[in-house]
Amino acid sequence: MKYKRQNKIITIVKNAPVHTHDELIEMLRAEGFNVTQATVSRDIKEIGLIKVPAQDGSSVYSVPEPASEPNKTRVEMVADSIKRVTAAYHTIVINTYPGMASAVAAAIDSSFHSEIIGSIAGDDAVFIITESPEGALELEKRIKNTFKAE
Asked: CA-CA distance, 65 to 126, in Å (whole number)?
């Protein structure tokens, strides 16, 4: 249900000006989603919606476009958190310091989103699935190079 709701939020924000949480809640309820202010706030944060200026001088929610190249600031923030990067078959395992796997996964997901089928972050490890063993080896090299990791 969460993913359907979040996908609907993205669709709504892309297709109509949404100025406030309350407007978004009303639109979601009109689509059959029974949501609370807290749920919508969490969804906005998880999706990464941002407020941008509208033509009328107000501000509206917007879905940020994924970066085509690794985000330098995000890379610098987590680069020291990576201990090791290893590819095996379709999988890449990134070992991190405790508590840093989620941040590393977010940086990897945003930097290499088109090359990744999916990722899972624990406390100190990130598992990334690619389409092929060759893709995993290539992505392993790119991650090591981008994050200056071993």
From this structure: 23
